[in-house]
Design a protein that fits this description.
Shape: globular
Helix content: over 70%
Number of strands: 0
Order of helices and strands: HHHHHHHHHHH
Structural class: mainly alpha
Strand content: under 5%
Distance between the termini: 20 Å
Largest sheet: none
Number of domains: 1
Radius of gyration: 18 Å
Amino acid sequence: MTYIDALILGFVQGITEFFPISSSGHLVVTEALLNIHVDPLSMQGFNVLLHAGTLIALLCCYARRWKEILLSPFTKNYANQRLLFFLILASIPAAISGLIFDERIAAISSLPVVGVSFLITAAVLIYGERRSNGDSIATLTYKDIALIGIAQACALVPGISRSGFTISAGRMAGLKREEALDFSFLMATPIIAGATMLAMIDVLEGSITLPASQTMIMGVAVSFVLSALSIVFLRSIVARYSFAWFAVYLIPLGLLCLTYRPV
């Protein structure tokens, strides 16, 4: 893998992780276009480690919120205690699914799978925008948390957008757009941190290989910068624009993935 490859992949990861269009799917498409020949498990490991940049961006953009949430057991803030408990519960389905299906997910990372997943994500985005009541995170129930947690687990499949599915699940649970987006981004933090740690363990054990350290650092740095800009941008427009508009992009891209044949 070259510096340019890592730069492009970091750029794609940073832009697409928080936009509801699936970073994993776009990385598969980009790898196909760049004609990168790496074994699927190592490629998945590299893609997961690109999320380290995304994780740092999340922690920076939500630092104050996370400080309040993590200190809530000591500050007696009931609302934040409840939010912390819900974030833990919502992370369980994806954590279990990732541990069980990690290698199988790497094996199905192909353009046809991504194409179908893009179309499913588009349908979910459209449906989710039709179901909101304008509620806040405080109104979520255990049933709602189960729905959002399962939605995040589904996003392990390449092309299924984690942010798209979890935001739409939040909208189906009645949340207004800003609340659904914030909850989705908060619950991304533990799951991305866990996936990054597991990928690092695989590297140390030698089960996956990575490009040169300079190439890896470049990819992560670009991912961090673009992820931070994406978070700021989405939070600034979320109240005014429907997420269903992203379906206009995903539908033709999904169809293109289903019909594209590498030369």
